[in-house]
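Purpose: get a first structural picture of the assembly so the mutagenesis plan has something to point at.
Setup: two entries, given in the order below. No constraints added.
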Amino acid sequence: MMLNGAEDEDKWLAEGIAGIQQNAFYMHRALDSNNLREVLKYSAQMLSELRTSKLSPHKYYELYMRAFDELRKLEMFFKDESKHGVSVVDLYELVQHAGNILPRLYLLCTVGSVYIKSKEAPAKDVLKDLVEMCRGVQHPIRGLFLRSYLAQISRDKLPDIGSEYEGGADTVMDAVEFVLQNFTEMNKLWVRLQNQGLGKLREKREKERSELRDLVGKNLHVLGQIEGIDLQMYKDTVLPRVLEQVVNCKDELAQYYLMDCIIQVFPDEYHLQTLEILLGAFPQLQPTVDIKTVLSQLMERLSNYAASNPEVLPEFLQVEAFAKLSSAIGKVIEAQVDMPIVGAITLYVSLLTFTLRVHPDRLDYVDQVLGACVKKLSSGQKLEDSRATKQVVALLSAPLEKYSDIVSALTLSNYPRVMDHLDNGTNKVMAMVIIQSIMKNNTCISTADKVEVLFELIKGLIKDLDGTGVDELDEEDFKEEQNSVARLIHMLYNDEPQEMLKIICTVRKHIMAGGVKRLPFTIPPLVFSALRLVRHLQGQDGEIVGEEVPATPKKIFQLLNQTIEALPSVPSPELALRLYLQCAEAANDCDLEHAAYEFFTQAFILYEEEIADSKAQVTAIHLIIGSLQRMNVFGIENRDTLTHKATGYSARLLKKPDQCRAVYACSHLFWVDDQDGIKDGERVLLCLKRALRIANAAQQMANVARGSSGPVTLFVEILNKYLYFFEKGNQQITSSAIQGLVELINTEMQSDSTTQNPTSDAFFASTLRYIQFQKQKGGLIGEKYESIKV
Amino acid sequence: MQEVHDYFKSLCPDLHVTRGEYDEDSRYPENKTLTIGQFKLGICHGHQVIPWGDLDSLAMLQRQLDVDILVTGHTHQFKAYKHEGGVVINPGSATGAYSSFTYDVNPSFVLMDIDGLRVVVYVYELIDGEVKVDKIDFKKTATTRSAH
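Result (structure tokens, whole complex):
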């Protein structure tokens, strides 16, 4: 059915064009022979084609343009009185005899143009006559095109300031009146189109109306270009009259388009000064008009205006732009009860964008916008719409982007309240955005109060919010989240120790409530933050009066103890052990023997009770030995207890090679190379000999269990340790002992039962090379090595 | 940490990692050796070598791995030692992280240019907000197996 219609239209259009062309042909002949009568006859006939009601606006336009082109030639003919011999006044009267009204009015307008140009009558009189005569055509499409023609030919003939048509009785006001009237009539015709036709064709009608809208809007453009319209005239006359028509027409399509037009056409400066009038129109519009888009447009234009003209900012304050916009938005939201929540939030986002660009220093305005949003969110509608959620995230992200120093965002009292309305998933997304903003801008959060606010905002990451369990989360996402939090903890810092300790306590309070899965991520950065502070305070152990938790190393170590002890039950005993050892070393540097001893105790307890995996034990015992080796704060008793424990556990590791290595590592516990360090040569040798025995036993065991005794690597390692202490001056290590060991290895390597191994061969070879090198060094070292033969 | 691993891979796809004391990932070995040009390199974090940071003990590991260049860490302090057995390089900490071993860690990292029998070590340190670069030359003589 539709297809037929379209085909028919094309046929009619073709017929119309043919009609125009045919009559134009005869009209041209008449023009050439200066035959006015014939000219008028054929031009009227030609214009009759425009009387059709069969064409859609799109097609009618094509027809209209053909006629328009011909009318230009006609106008030139009319202008040249010598050609037709009739005065323009008489011509104006003559054309009114045309039979049908539409051709008559087109001809009249064409003559009118010539008439105005001739200046034989004031422009305003002719214009007034024409605009009123056009009332004779009430058919929407035909009327719109006719008036459009009128607007077209009158454009350059308006009595504007500085134009040749101004002066005497003619003023700008007359120009304005003319355009306003034409506009009003055209709008009425346009709106009338909506009500024509059956319900089924409504969509078609709306499409047609859309095609015609620029004809109506053109009038506003013309108004926009009339130079004589100053702010006062705009405020007193132009805007109120236009708005009156917009409101009164009660048509959704027209209202939306025309409001938008007004905003685009007239200067931003005018909008700023007429804000109240403009905004006052919005509540009066039809409830279905998409006001939020228009309002957003307005706010965006004003933001850009402010951004490119900073000198007008005081004006914004003077006209109270923010207050007016804020209030207008509130009214609109209130009036349009059916507005979905996404609409309201979008409006607030626009307002916030405006505020951040125009009044960035007014955090109170920003907070106000957030507050209005909170109110709307609290009114009951749930944020189930994902678009609405996106808008809320946009709302919350805007201040973060604007204020690279997140601290400003932290002072907005309504910020956390808005966040509370997000669902848990989005809340966490927002928290991540906040953290990323801090990381990107390298912001340092420097007071406990701010940290408190920050952790409130990101609480979705710090602990389980009501309703979600950590188990529901994807593991990768969870890790990423927690690593972000861990990074964040390093950004919380203050040079002043007392405040830094407050920060640490605040963070601790929050993360300890985060549940076991989070602790392995959050506790380590806190511990290291605290150890940094300890280092800062090193040496200052005096009691700071008046503070509940004084910033002293002692107090901090107590805090650390209480914090790390939460890890084993996660279960993360290995992590806890490492952290205890770090604390022990720090306590050592602060000369706090008891604290250091306590940390070692905790580490050993974990080793005994919680670390069962044999590989983990090997690493753990080496870490204990490595830390213990560096301790210088222990008195003899304490040191003995701990070294005894360490060597004992070393000897009791599961695999013999591991035992061997741990035991010879323990040899270093009895020899510290600085001037006050312990240098117990005997106990060093005891360890090495014990290691040797274990290596032997390992060989024998391997022989029995596997048929060959395994590589000599362990022996070579022990040899190297002998050399180490030999060089350091341990009297108990003799060159003959070394010689013996070298020969032992040689023998073992040549024995059938030993596994050949290129690695251990190379190791032994490089060790021998080393001995050789030392021998050749000369001096004291050379002397030492002299008796060793390789 | 997977993010850091991925970041390094984006810098260079040929990535070698050894286990640090806080690495829970048991995929990473305790030490590793590889050959680049004429040089044999060994990598080991260093918490396994006691006493920590001790040159002679590290030299022992170097002999054990039979490498010309030993790359190690743990102390967060940049060091480059040259000894008869070869070269030991500790690039320090790229992030300036806390260390019980070193006070006031300056972030640093090292690039090694291996060309024939010559190694040039470039060390980049961030000191008081400025990046300082230094370089050290090492040559390996073709006849002996050690670097001088």
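Chain B has two helices and eight strands.
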